[in-house]
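Training component of the fellowship. As part of building independent skills, the fellow (R.M.) carried out the full modelling exercise for a liganded target. The chosen ligand was 2-keto-D-gluconic acid. The inputs are recorded below so that the supervisory panel can assess the work.
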Amino acid sequence: MTRPLPQEVQDEAAKHFDVTVRENTAPMNSDELRAGLRDYDGVIPTLGDLYTPQVFDDVPDPRCRILANFGVGYNHIDVTAATAAGLVVTNTPGAVTEATADTAMTLILMSCRRAGEGERLVRAGEWEGWHPTQLLGLHLGGRTVGIVGMGRIGQAIARRCHSGFGMKVAYHSRSPKTLDFPAERKESLSDLARAVDVMVVAVPGGDETHHLVDAKVLAAMQPHAHLVNIARGNVVDEAALIAALEQRRIGGAGLDVYEFEPKVPQALKALENVVLLPHIGTAALEVRTEMGLMSVENLRAFFAGEAVPNPV
Ligand code: 8YV
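Fellow's submitted model of the complex:
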């Protein structure tokens, strides 16, 4: 385990394997990445453990047969290189869905209703009391949410917006989806950006989605519209977003992820019209436990000679 995982996960793993838990909470450095491949039969890596092709090249004939990633996103692992090196890669879909959708709702509400701004006002001792035109935000009821990428997490967000908040749903995805709620598919991302009041990024990270939300897409958004990102930071061109927020070309943004995580640009921190969370998408003990148990189950199945439940 490349980070400490919940005790229940460690206990379950210990039933099946000799377990080493790396106590450091930071991503593995380049020596540790290579040692993991060289010295262990299986590894549970996670966000930030950067398995580039070079890492696999540097460990010919690795002892490690499987990377059972903790998390649904695996953009930190070059899966092509891992596969070429003879490794299986698995992830933890499903376990993260509802919690990540909840985090999206947190950001939608915080950004649209200016909750971060309000909290800062109170903490600074500058709140002078209620009045009818103070901190007016965007009311969600009847507005349209635009989902970028209508996968499991996108659908969970859309369902909450539709059923819980009376919002209309529009989306953009590579292929049309069969959905159990009404939603309009837009042909292009710019079409979606033009049509919605809140746009939520819910696509996987990786080369294909790098800077998918760029200056052009941001320029298509309405001046009152908010952007929320619970996916991966580099899906959004962060410099272009900062410019749009600084020039008030969009209403605001809510971010759980950053392009150069954990670096959060000072320009973002200086802005009132953006909500900044520290990648807490799935940060609840029961969710992290379920994710970890899924990783362990993938390892168990693999070494028992069974099909792994969650290959990527
Ligand atoms: C994780 C996530 O907590 O599952 C993912 O891909 O983004 C989060 O839910 C974290 O990134 C570890 O993968």
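The panel noted the following from the submitted structure. The longest strand covers residues 144-148. The first helix runs from residue 7 to 16.
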